[in-house]
Amino acid sequence: MSTLRLIPGTPDAVLSALTEVLAGSGSPFAPLPSDPAGAARVRQAAVPDEPVEDGCAVVLSTSGSSGEPKGVLLSRDALIASASATHDRLGGPGQWLLPMKPYFVGGLQILTRSVLAGTTPVLAGDDFSAAAARMTGSRRYTAMVPTQLARYLESAADALRCFDAIVIGGAAMPADLKARAATAGVTAIPAYGMTETGSGCVYAGVPLAGTSLDLDDGRILIKGPTLFSGYRLRPELTAEVLRDGWFRTQDRGEFVDGRLRVIGRLDDVVISGGVNVTLPAVQARLLEHPEVKDAVVLGVPDVEWGTRVVAFVVGQPRRQALRDFVAETLPRAWAPRTVVQLDALPMLASGKVDRQSLLDGVR
């Protein structure tokens, strides 16, 4: 078996290592974030002192946004399949701009697509507009998380319009953000996927070529060539989620007019005071309030209620006003019992909300 390389998670280092493994000449690697906490998380998940499982090209750590990080094994074939299917869906290979960290799957796949397309990726840096101006490809792409898109729509809308497509992943794309992008003439395509699926594998509700979808009592199942090989040194956990070639995600969904609609995570329905509460529905309602700039709704263990519904909001609305606002369209029992006002939601480097940090702050 090969020995795992730990490399700096910088664009240059990751691009060099990717070029080698995609050519079939490099040994497996795991990119390390520059911050100590992130590097420690990757070391914990990647376990560099043990041999690497056969067929592995890259070990990526999950974000750990909702629990313990895991080392995800991605093969050379999975990386190529994901990049090729993405280009096929978008209209052909092109040049990519990188506004994401390359030690997470979204950033890594931007570099993978660049290698396969034979184009030079452009780094976004601190000035997105200036970076976009350096793009020279006949077809131009980028990918980012919803928070980035929202910020760039305010500060760099002209730059966004120069891209043939902008893939939006890492989190659900709010309906109002989708509408803002369309109004601004920006081609933003919501993507669903995760590290285990080699990045986004469902674009605008339609799976990429080679990917199959199914539902098991609402649980989203995914099958196809972009799937990971397993979790690093965790055969029991791998066996739980990979069955007969299908990856059993932790997400719930439904098919609407032939397209996948992601409803939320399996644990997004909690029992509070004997009532089933769908947290994403509460969150979506809060985001409609004019005084709420951003929000996340979580369930917190509670002696009295079993699970207490807690809303973390960016803004200064009064608690009772928010409860009444939620109760206008949803059951009164779904209204958050606790409202925590924040200047900004804590974010991980992956662009996801740091849910664990929020939970730790209220327990």
TrEMBL record:
It comes from the Bacteria. One of its GO terms (molecular function) is acid-thiol ligase activity. InterPro entries: AMP-bd_C, AMP-bd_C_sf, AMP-dep_synth/lig_dom, ANL_N_sf, ATP-dep_AMP-bd_enzyme. Coiled coil: none annotated. The keyword Ribosomal protein does not apply. Residues 44-231 form the AMP-dependent synthetase/ligase domain. Residues 283-352 form the AMP-binding enzyme C-terminal domain. This is O-succinylbenzoic acid--CoA ligase. The lineage of its organism: Bacteria, Bacillati, Actinomycetota, Actinomycetes, Propionibacteriales.
